[in-house]
Design brief:
This protein is an alpha+beta fold and 246 residues long. It folds into 3 domains: 53 residues, Roll (Structural Genomics Hypothetical 15.5 Kd Protein In mrcA-pckA Intergenic Region, Chain A), CATH 3.10.290.10; 98 residues, Alpha-Beta Plaits (2-Layer Sandwich), CATH 3.30.70.580; 79 residues, 2-Layer Sandwich (Alpha-Beta Plaits). Helices cover 24% and strands 28% of the residues. The protein is built from 6 helices and 15 strands.
Length: 246
């Protein structure tokens, strides 16, 4: 493995920054300082130090499912002192995890965290059209015409939103519950889709990413994905990336 990749996989720096660390003479292999970025190392036997500190790459990717509660943000820290998802995940500290996409402060539900950057790219980039399913509660009722608009694709604040699958689960005089599946992953996408037809979302919970479902996981708790769930995500990743290569 190239030394810069080894440093990046240890979470010390990006590959570009790893190259700079090497050029600056801050990296040693088996006690010998190196200054060439193209050096290959034996990951099983060689000992690497950066700034005098021994490093070890993350050998196995980690995949976590978290049921995000309302009232926390999807970042590692917040300048305003608000709770973050990582305040709930202390048992998973030190694994280099980052959120796959985001759920806004007032939204809840399924959030994946991993250290697998390639998979995260597939699950979040709009071009891969990964379906994400939400339960939504809006104020008042919604007409068939508005549902047809959402299914055909809407425009809000100059931004076009792709057609979404949507149906009513329950409708009363003062509120409506719906299920909606979107594929773009744009910022606050679901809320803006409903705003485009004049509806205010008062509850938003993500239930599924592809066929990966939140199930009965309690709010504010997390678990490792099962081998079956990981296999599903990797198969999906391989399928969509192969399709894009053609």
């Amino acid at each position: 493995m190239r030394i810069n990749k080894y440093i990046a996989e240890a979470g010390v720096a990006s590959r570009r920054n790893a190259d700079q660390l090497i050029k600056d003479g801050k990296v040693s292999v088996n006690g010998k300082k190196i200054t060439e970025c193209g050096v290959d190392i034996n990951v099983e036997n060689d000992v690497v130090h950066v700034d005098g500190v021994k490093i070890t790459p993350i050998r196995r990717y980690t995949y976590i499912m978290f049921n995000k509660p309302k009232g926390c943000i999807t970042t590692a820290q917040d300048e305003f002192g608000r709770k973050t998802v990582f305040d709930y995940l202390e048992q998973f500290a030190g694994k280099g995890l980052f959120p796959v996409g985001r759920l806004d402060y007032d939204s809840e539900g399924l959030l994946l965290l991993t250290n697998d950057g390639a998979l995260a790219q597939v699950l979040t980039h709009p071009s891969y059209e990964v379906p994400k399913t939400y339960l939504v509660k809006i104020e008042g009722t919604i007409s068939d015409d508005d549902l047809k608009k959402i299914r055909a694709g809407v425009k809000f604040d100059g931004v076009r939103y792709a057609p979404a699958k949507v149906f009513i689960k329950e409708q009363k005089e003062n509120f409506t519950r719906l299920e909606i599946t979107v594929t773009e992953g744009k910022n606050r996408e679901v809320r803006k889709i409903f705003e485009a037809v004049g509806k205010n979302v008062v509850f938003l919970c993500r239930k599924k990413i592809g066929e990966l479902a939140l199930g009965g996981l309690s709010r504010g708790t997390a678990r490792y994905l099962s081998d079956k769930e990981i296999a599903y995500l990797k198969a999906f990743q391989n399928a969509v990336t192969d399709k894009k290569r053609r």
